[in-house]
Design a protein that fits this description.
The chain is mostly helical.
């Protein structure tokens, strides 16, 4: 229990991974404006206007912010489900290829290893594609040099790798190393991989509607601007501090939505794509280290 409480306070006071760096300027500005209104009020200038509370009802702004964060989290969670599905599908593909594809010649095992490495390369290429990064040395160790060079000029490298895997499966089917049922099962798994790629691209390339984002920011600014006029009569010199706390809450909620709506980057709150790709590679290496107990007829 003591450890749990200690972790709670440590998390509550943590700066790294929070949105403080994103919103501190707005918070300071709101607090400073609140202090200015306090000075004007104590100088007997009629700045107190409690009626302004009805301009933007708190419940309306709250509902807008909730919708914003829920939409962003839905995008984050859908991205995580896509990558989870990708990991499981690559495991199933690797397992079935390693066990089901017959080895009729000495080079067949090497070809199977190459195919399994292509599965790991698919995950890494998808990560780089979603981050708009060029093909790098992480892929060079997993694919032949000729394919690596070709991959550099492709617009959609993961799709090209999926094509190579499909081509390998078709070759094995034509050589009677796979039967029709196995071929259909493997192709279906490969289709799921491509579907997951498309779902991630949909998240990446469908941002929050600009009009909604602009209107929400305008309402936040207007609400925080009008707040000191509403509370200065009641709070006096505390107006600046309370204005800063309220703006910290509101701008923080909006910043959280911005932080998680694109989950494929490098931020603390993004998906751990590097770790997921490393997991895929370790799974492939484990499967390659196993020897299938398949009786050849």
């Amino acid at each position: 229990m003591i450890i749990t409480k200690s972790q709670w306070f440590k998390t509550a006071l943590q700066i790294k991974g929070s949105v403080i760096y994103s919103i501190y300027q707005q918070v300071i500005l709101s607090g400073a404006f609140g202090v200015l209104i306090s000075l004007l009020y104590h100088a007997h200038i009629p700045v107190s206007q409690p009626i302004l509370a009805s301009v933007i009802p708190s419940i309306v702004l709250g509902l807008l912010l909730v919708f914003r964060t829920n939409t962003a989290y839905e995008r984050f969670w859908e991205g995580r489900k896509c990558w989870g599905s990708m990991v499981n599908t690559i495991r199933n593909l690797a397992r079935q290829i390693w066990v089901c594809v017959d080895e009729k010649e000495l080079r067949d095992k090497d070809n199977k290893i190459d195919a399994l490495n292509l599965l790991a390369a698919f995950g890494i290429a998808t990560k780089l594609h979603l981050r708009s990064e060029p093909i790098n040395s992480d892929l060079e160790a997993l694919i032949p040099e000729s394919k690596y060079i070709k991959l550099k000029i492709m617009n959609n490298p993961p799709l090209e790798i999926a094509f190579w895997i499909s081509d390998y499966l078709q070759q094995q089917y034509n050589r009677n190393c796979l039967n029709s049922y196995q071929m259909a099962s493997l192709q279906e798994l490969l289709n799921i991989l491509v579907d997951n790629l498309g779902a991630c691209e949909r998240i990446l390339k469908t941002p929050m509607p600009l009009a909604y984002a602009i209107h929400l920011k305008q309402l936040l600014f207007l609400y925080c601007f009008l707040l000191p006029f509403q509370i200065v009569e009641s709070l006096g010199w505390w107006t600046g501090l309370i204005s800063a706390l309220v703006s910290f809450t509101l701008f923080g909620i909006e910043a959280i939505g911005l932080e998680i709506e694109n989950p494929f980057g490098y931020d603390e709150n993004d998906l751990p794509l590097d770790a997921i790709c490393q997991t895929m590679k370790r799974n492939i290496d484990d499967i390659i280290s196993l020897t299938p107990s398949v009786q050849k007829l």
